[in-house]
Design a protein that fits this description.
Blueprint lengths: L7 H22 L5 H12 L1 H13 L5 H11 L12 H19 L3 H12 L1 H9 L1
Helix pairs in contact: 1-2, 1-5, 2-3, 3-5, 4-5, 6-7
Amino acid sequence: MKINELNILALAYLGDSIYEIYVRKFLIGKGIVKVKELQAEAIKYVSAKGQAHYLKIWIKSELLKKDELEIVGRARNHKGNRHPKNTDILTYKHATALEALIGFWYLKQNFERLNEMMALILEEQTCTYMEKM
């Protein structure tokens, strides 16, 4: 399978589920056990606005490598104009790009990079730092 040639939305589809697993595991690890509280906390991470925010920070901080930026570019430039009612098209495309990147790392079995970048989102100290940017 040539990952670089896969449909970008298929990468995002996979990446979305991987991202959710990381977020859910992180929140449960923080000791949150009530489903209503888990859902409320998860929205901060899994919303299109939250995902777009993290991707923009990675780009601004020059944390992404050339091949990763190519995936991001393909996802942002995908010609689809459909998006959820509660978000604008640009935010949605950035969120899709983050999900595609996660799917890319997963399929390449680059778990070290996947873990590294997810830690930037999920670790409390980093999240506090990132919110200031």
